[in-house]
Amino acid sequence: MPKELLLKNKSFYVILTNLTVILTVIFMCGIVGAVSERNITPILLAGLTRLEYRGYDSAGVAVINKEQNLECVKTLNKVKDLNEKVTGIEGNLGIAHTRWATHGLPVESNAHPHIVNNRLALVHNGIVENYSELKQFCINQGAIFSSDTDTEVIVQLINITMQKDNLTLYDAVRQTLPKLKGAYGMAVIDAENPDEMIAVRQGSPLTISLGFGENFISSDPMALLFISQQYVVLEENDLAILRKDSVVIENSKGKVVFDSNDTQKSKYKIITSTQDDAGVTSKGGYRHFMHKEIHEQPKAIAETLEGCISDNRLLVECFGQEAAFIFSKIKRVQIIACGTSYHSGMVFRYWCEDIIGIPVDVEVASEFRYRNPAIEKDVLFVAISQSGETADTAEALKIVEKLKKQAEGKNHWSILTISNKAESTLVRYADLVFLTRAGFEVGVASTKAFTTQLVALSLLMIALGKSQKRLSETVEKRMIQGLRKVPKLVQSALDQEEQIIELSNIIANSQSALFLGRGTMYPIALEGALKLKEISYIHAEAFPAGELKHGPLALVDEETPVIVIAPNNDLLIKLKSNLEEVSSRGGKIYAFEDKNSKLTRTKSVNVISVAENVGRISCPLLFTIPLQLLSYHVARIKGTDIDQPRNLAKSVTVE
Ligand code: M6R
To answer: Which of 350, 361, 391, 481 measures 20 to 30 Å from 288, CA to CA?
Structure first.
C-alpha cells in the first residue's frame, strides 16, 4: 500500500501523508458563542439545545471563569448531559459546539472546543483541507496534539503565531487565516483577554446576534432567538470582533463593514427576525417533530399559496418584481438541488415539459458543481433548498455566478432560489426568490418543506407558462382552483393514518423494500424510499416501474415488499402490467391508489385508497403523504431516533 495517497479533484488536493491518521471531516456542526456582563453558561447550553435538531455525535462548552481560567466540558451524549456536567461553571465569555463527524471516531478528545496551552479555545464548523501539512508544520514547531481533528490544527497554528511574535488574538488569527485552505466558520477565545471573541466565516454560515451589554455568535440565528431577535449575517471571508458592548465586522481586506456602535455608516444591515420561534421547541403534543411536521402540511401549503393568488389568477410578481420579464425570455430551466429538494425538482420537469413545453434539466448539485456543464444562453437556474445553506447547492450557484460574470451579461442567465429560509446564503445569490412558508422544520427528514416546494414549483410552472403565453387563462384558472383545494385533500390523505399504521407493522419486519411509480410518481417513489431508509434504516430502492424488467425484477421475492403508487392517470394501464410482472414472481404488493384506479385486490395485492379524482398537479402532493406516514410509523415501531437519525444532519453546510 503506498504511503502517500493523492486525491485530486477540480478545486483542491487532499494529501493523506499517513494512512493511520483518522481524517475527521466535520459537517453541519452547531456553534454558539457569547460575551456578556452576566453568566453565559446557561445561554450557551440553551443555544446548543436549539441546534440539536441538526444532528450531532458530541457536544462541548468552554467558558473563561472569573479567575480567568478556561473551563471546558465535553460529552458524547446529548446536550442534556452537558447541562449536568457544567454545574458551577460560570463566566462572561464562552463558546459551545455540537459536532457531527462523517469520518473519525466520535470520541471526547475529538469533540470541540479544542484547547491549547490552557489559554485558547476554538470551535469550528467545516473542513481544513490542507490540515495534514499544517499539522506537520505545527509538530515541527513543538506542538503536541490531543485530537485527530483538522480543527485542532487551526488553534495550534494561532497559538504558535501568537507565541512567536507576542501577538494579540486578533493579529494571530489574521495571520493564520491565509494559511488555511477549506471551508470554515469558527469562533476563538483567549483566557488572557476575557472580554473578546474573534469569529470568522469562510464557506460555513455564521451570524451575530446583538444584545444590550452582550453579543452572541451562532451558526444559525434561530438558536439564539430566545435571547435576541436582531442579528447580522457574516459574509464570506469576514472576521468579527465581539465584545459585550460592541461588534465590529471586517471584510478580508480589514475594512470595517459593520460597527454596532455606528450602524448608520455600516454596510451591513441588522436583520430583525420574522421567524416564529414558538414551534421550534415544542412538539405540540406529538411524540416527534417529524410527525408534527407531517400534520402541519395542510397549513404550510395554504400559507405558501397565500399572497400568490388573486381572483384565481397567479401573481407572477410573487417570484420578484423582475420575474415576468425574466420568465418571458428564458428558453430552458436548470434545476440544482440535493436530496428531497432534488426530488421536487424532478417532479417539476414532468410538469413543465408536459404542460407548457419548456425544457428542464435537473441535476444534483454535488454533480453539477464538479463537471463542466454545457449550458445554453437563456437559462433560468432554479436552486431548491429547504435550509438555503446546503453547501453543494451554494457552490453550484457560485459557479453559475462566475460563468455569468465571465460572459458579461451575454448569456442571459438568471437565478431563482426557492427556499424556506429568508435570510440564507442561497437567497443572497439569487436574482429572484420564492420563499416557501413551511415554517421551521426540525425533523432531519424533510416533509412539509418538500410539499411546499412542490407548491412553489407548480406556481413557477404556471408563471413561466403565463409569461411566455403558453398557458391559456382558462387552464391557469383551473390549475389555481385545483391548487386551492390541495390543503383539504392533503388533510383527507392524512386522515388515512390508521390504515397506514397497519401497513407499517408489516413493513417494519422487512430488510428491504422496493418503491415503484411512473411519471411524476417516479420522483415520489424516490422520495418515499429516501424517507424510509433515512429514518427506519431499512434498505429501500425506487424505480420507474417500466424499468423493472431491465434488472430490478431480480430483487422481487416474497420477503421484499413492493410499494406502488398508482393514481388513476394515463400511465395506470402500463403500471397495472408492471404489477402483474411483480405478482407473477411471488412479490407482495402494497399499493396506494386513488379511488378510480380500481386495482384488483388479491392475496398478494394490498391496496389503500388515498384520494379521489386527483389532478396532475395535486397528485404528487397527495401521494407523498401516505409515504411520509409509512416511513414515520415504521421507524416508530422500530424505535429509531426519528428526528435525528443516525449519521445524518439537518443542514449539510459543508461538502
Ligand atoms: O436544505 P436542503 O433542502 O438544501 O437539503 C437538501 C438535502 O440535504 C435534504 O433534502 C435531505 O435529503 C433530507 N434529509 C431528506 O429528508
So the answer is: 391
